[in-house]
Write a structure and sequence with these properties.
By secondary structure, this protein is of the alpha/beta class. It has helices at about 15-20, 35-40, 55-65, 80-90, 100-105, 110-135, 180-200, 240-250, 265-280, 300-310, 340-345, 355-365; strands spanning about 1-5, 25-30, 70, 90-95, 140-145, 160-165, 165-170, 200-210, 210, 250-255, 260-265, 285-290, 295-300, 320. It is globular and about 55 Å long.
Length: about 375
C-alpha cells in the first residue's frame, strides 16, 4: 500500500516509517522537526544523536534497499497537507504529528497555545484534505489512554452503551484528561468523529498507553538509525526515564505514592498494532477506537521491574518517592479493555527483566551523554 506518515521524525514516527518500508510498502514521511526544536529549547535532547530525516532515509535505503520519500514542511499549513494528500493519494495516513508532552503543554502560556494550535490544526488539516482529495483513504490517528483519565468504572474501547429513562444509545466513552496535551487528544477525537459521520471518512483512533523501548527489528544494530529516545522529565516516558536513571545511579523518581496505574506497551508492539490497523482498515463512516496497550502497571511496579533488570547487568538500582508535580489520583481503580487489537492478531511483547536489561545495555553505551539536570521535574501543575 501507499502510506503517508505524518510526524515521521519522532520516537514512534521514524520506526513506523522504517517498519512499513521494510515490508515493501511505498512510504512518504513528513515532518517539520518541531519536537527537535522544542527539545533544544527546553534542554531535553535525546540520549542518542539522530540524523535529520533525509540522512536517515538515505542510510536506511543504503542498508535495507528500501526507499523512503521525505517531505519537510509545516503540517499546520493547509496548503502543505493538501499537496501531500492530493499528489500522493495515500491508501493509509498515519498521524503522529502532534506535540506529545503533557509537562510541556503546561510549561507556559506560549507552550500551551503551541500545543493546542499545533495539535488541533494538524488534525483538522488532515481530515479537510481527505474530504477533498482522498475520501476513501484510511486515517490511523494516534490517540492516548490518557484521554479517559481514571474513571471508577471499566474503560471500554472508545464507546459506551448507555440506558437512560427507558431509552438506550451509544456514545463516545466519557473523557477526563489530566493535562492540556491529553485534552487536545480528546478534542481530536470529537473533531474526527464529526468528519467521519458527516463525510463518510474511515478512521482508526489508537488510544495508546506510554511506550518504552530503544529499537525495533528494522533498526536493530544501527545506532545512527535508532528512534529519538528521550529520558528527561518533559519528553521521556516513565520506563525510558527509569532506565536512564538506573544507569546514571540516580534513584528512580516515583511521583508521590506511586500507585498511578497505566497501560504500557513495548515499541515493538506499537509497530505491530499500527500495521494491524492498516491491514484491517475501518469501514466507511466508521470511527474505530482501539485501546493500544498490553499490560497495566503502577509506577511502583514499574520501578520494581527496573530494579530486577539492574541486577542482571550489575547495577544496584534505588527507588525514591518525590513530591508529585502533577495533579492526579495516586490511588485509583483502573480496568481498561484492550481486546480489539488482540482479536486482530496482536501477539504482545510483555515486559521482563531480560528485555529491560537489554535496553539497559544500550543505555550504558551512551552513559556519558546523560545529563542529570534533566531528570527531576521542571514543570509542575500540582
Amino acid at each position: 500500500m501507499k502510506v503517508l506518515v505524518l510526524g515521521g521524525d519522532g520516537y514512534l514516527g521514524w520506526p513506523t516509517t522504517a517498519s512499513f518500508a521494510s515490508r515493501g510498502d511505498e512510504v512518504i514521511v513528513a515532518d517539520n522537526y518541531l519536537r527537535r526544536v522544542l527539545a533544544q529549547q527546553t534542554d531535553s535532547e535525546a540520549l542518542i544523536e539522530t540524523p535529520l530525516l533525509p540522512e536517515r532515509a538515505r542510510l536506511f535505503e543504503q542498508r535495507s534497499g528500501h526507499n523512503i520519500t521525505v517531505e519537510i514542511g509545516d503540517l499546520t499549513e493547509y496548503s502543505f497537507v493538501e499537496r501531500l494528500i492530493r499528489d500522493y493519494q495515500p491508501d493509509t495516513i498515519i498521524h503522529y504529528a502532534e506535540q506529545p508532552s503533557a509537562p510541556y503543554s503546561l510549561m507556559s502560556v506560549d507552550a500551551s497555545r503551541l500545543t493546542l494550535n499545533n495539535n488541533l490544526n494538524v488534525t483538522l488539516n488532515v481530515v479537510l484534505a481527505m474530504v477533498d482529495h482522498a475520501p476513501k483513504c484510511h486515517l490511523i490517528k494516534l490517540g492516548t489512554m490518557g484521554e479517559y483519565g481514571t474513571p471508577n468504572i471499566d474503560i471500554e474501547e472508545g464507546w459506551i452503551d448507555i440506558e437512560h429513562k427507558g431509552r438506550s444509545d451509544r456514545f463516545l466513552f466519557p473523557r477526563a484528561a489530566g493535562s492540556l496535551y491529553h485534552t487536545t487528544k480528546v478534542l481530536d477525537t470529537d473533531l474526527i468523529w464529526f468528519y467521519v459521520r458527516t463525510f463518510d471518512l474511515r478512521v482508526t483512533d489508537l488510544m495508546q498507553g506510554p511506550v518504552y523501548g530503544l529499537t525495533s527489528p528494522e533498526l536493530d544494530g544501527h545506532l545512527d538509525l535508532l528512534p529519538s529516545f528521550h529520558y528527561d522529565d518533559i519528553f521521556g516516558t516513565a520506563v525510558n526515564r527509569f532506565l536512564v536513571q538506573a544507569v546514571a545511579g540516580i534513584p528512580l523518581t516515583v511521583y508521590g505514592g506511586g500507585g498511578q496505574t497505566r497501560g504500557y506497551l513495548n515499541l515493538i508492539d506499537t509497530l505491530a498494532c499500527v500495521k494491524l490497523a492498516a491491514d484491517n482498515p475501518a469501514a466507511e463512516r466508521e470511527l474505530r477506537i482501539l485501546n493500544q496497550f498490553t499490560e497495566t502497571f503502577s509506577v511502583l511496579e514499574l520501578a520494581s521491574h527496573i530494579v530486577e533488570a539492574g541486577k542482571l547487568v550489575g547495577i544496584n538500582v534505588e527507588v525514591k518517592s518525590i513530591k508529585n508535580p502533577r495533579r492526579e489520583a495516586e490511588e485509583h481503580y483502573y480496568n481498561p479493555t484492550n481486546s480489539g487489537l488482540v482479536e486482530l492478531g496482536l501477539d504482545p511483547t510483555l515486559i521482563s527483566p531480560e528485555r529491560l536489561a537489554a535496553m539497559l545495555e544500550i543505555v550504558i553505551t551512551h552513559k556519558d551523554r546523560i545529563d542529570p539536570d534533566r531528570i527531576m521535574p521542571r514543570v509542575k501543575w500540582n
